Amino acid sequence: MQYTHRHLTARVERALKTSRVVNIVGPRQSGKTTLVRDMVKTAYYATMDDSAVLAAFETDPYGQLMALSDQLSDTDQPIALDEIQRLPEITLALKRIVDENRRPGQFLLTGSSDIFTTAAAYDSLAGRVQTLTLRPFSASEIKGCEPFRLLDAAEKNHNDLTIQLPRPLPCDRTIAIDLVVRGGFPEMFHLDSRDRMERYESYVDSIVERDVAPISSIRKPDVLRRLIDQLASRTAEELTVSKLCQVLNTRKETVNDYIDILSRLGIVRLLGAWTSSGAKREIKSPKLHFLDTGCASALRGEDEGSFHPGADPSAFGHLLESFVFSELEKSLPYASKRWRLYHWRSGRQEIDIIAEAPGRRLALFEVKASTSLSLEDFRHMSRFKSEGPGRAYRTHAFCVYLGSDVLSFGPDLTAIPLSLFWSYRNRGGLPS
């Protein structure tokens, strides 16, 4: 069977050479099991989805791990434990073992939530565990290309990036819509519209029924399920909890708790508000993004035919913005600098995404669901750069659109086609 190469594979292999425990977290069905079983060499694999295996580890986690470690002591490959969020108490047993044996690469864990987020678990394995995140397929993985590296080019401070970037692959509105509504979940991506919608509905139900319990005991699973639908309809909008409370007829504390759970499960992301004062960031209203636009589209009842020329343009515009945000987020681990993502709004001026790197470096992104652009499309970013809080930073502004060419609209103003996200060199050379 041919597998889609995951960019994270190389990072997992490097982490196993330096960390005693490597922990891969990501949403259910994002491909963690396939990566561990078929792309990374392991000495032993067990899943906590097997009730017998889970029962054995629950009875004596330290004894089970020690038996496996002794049995596999002559190999330098890790013991892989899948769906480990079902057994959070294993952290103390892991600590005992890796404290006695300091060899890197002993355990490779996967889970839909991070069992090391609690203070006790984190403190017990501080310095011994490295956590990596696996999202659903990025567009570049689907197309067989290397990670999106635009932020590396932006960091080098070229006024004109048109000659620094790869030649974009052809793309039109139809291709963009297809990618957005399919999303990146490996088992759903290739399905036709009706089957894909049914699978996504079932997928969300399984999250509520199976993945939430290890994180938190919820009293109103029906409210959580309706909240997910509401968030899908509000992707790429600033979060207004009071409106959600009215629609769901529930308390603010409940909505906030449930959004936190969904964030920890990799379903949604709250994008903090950027300010020039780092101490005040993320205090203002965050913007909510549904991290897989295929799932969001299905929950909204939308498919490829929903975005014909006469349809509401804002509906696809919001999904496209969340798609771009998700692609940017997936590219961050492969950038040469550490970038953080925000959004910005001041009165009627707003910027969809702001990426910030050390050294007072900013990359601004506006997302347009159109095939052509004008200088007017850069007006908010230009004002932010020249008159607003960005004037004290080294800043490059990008407008993502559905056209075909990388275009310069002046110093530090660049239009990039959506297809640039999957146009970097693949392992065989230029994208084909």
What is the element layout, followed by pairings?
Layout: H1 8-16, E1 21-25, H2 32-39, E2 44-47, H3 51-59, H4 61-71, E3 79-82, H5 90-100, E4 107-111, H6 119-124, E5 129-133, H7 139-142, H8 150-155, H9 173-182, H10 193-211, H11 221-233, E6 237-238, H12 241-248, H13 252-264, E7 268-271, E8 287-290, H14 293-299, H15 313-331, E9 340-346, E10 349-357, E11 361-367, H16 379-386, E12 394-401, E13 407-408, E14 413-417
Parallel strand pairs: 1-4, 1-5, 2-3, 3-4, 11-12, 12-14
Antiparallel strand pairs: 6-8, 7-8, 9-10, 10-11, 13-14
Descriptive overview:
With 432 residues, this protein is of the alpha/beta class. The protein has helices spanning 8-16, 32-39, 51-59, 61-71, 90-100, 119-124, 139-142, 150-155, 173-182, 193-211, 221-233, 241-248, 252-264, 293-299, 313-331, 379-386, and strands at 21-25, 44-47, 79-82, 107-111, 129-133, 237-238, 268-271, 287-290, 340-346, 349-357, 361-367, 394-401, 407-408, 413-417. The protein has a six-stranded mixed β-sheet with strand order 9-10-11-12-14-13, sandwiched between helices. Helix 10 crosses helix 14 (293-299). The radius of gyration is 22 Å and the shape is globular. The two termini are 22 Å apart.
Give the distance, in angstroms, between the N- and C-terminal Cα atoms.
Answer: 22 Å
Biggest sheet record: 6 strands, mixed
Number of strands: 14
Q: List low-pLDDT spans.
A: 427-432
Strand order of the largest sheet: 9-10-11-12-14-13
Structural class: alpha/beta
The best one-word shape is globular
Number of helices: 16
Quaternary structure: single chain
Mean pLDDT metric: 90
Number of domains: 2
Q: What is the N-to-C succession of helices and strands?
A: HEHEHHEHEHEHHHHHEHHEEHHEEEHEEE
Return Rg in Å: 22 Å
Estimated share of beta-strand residues:
15-25%
Q: How helical, in percent, are the residues?
A: 25-40%
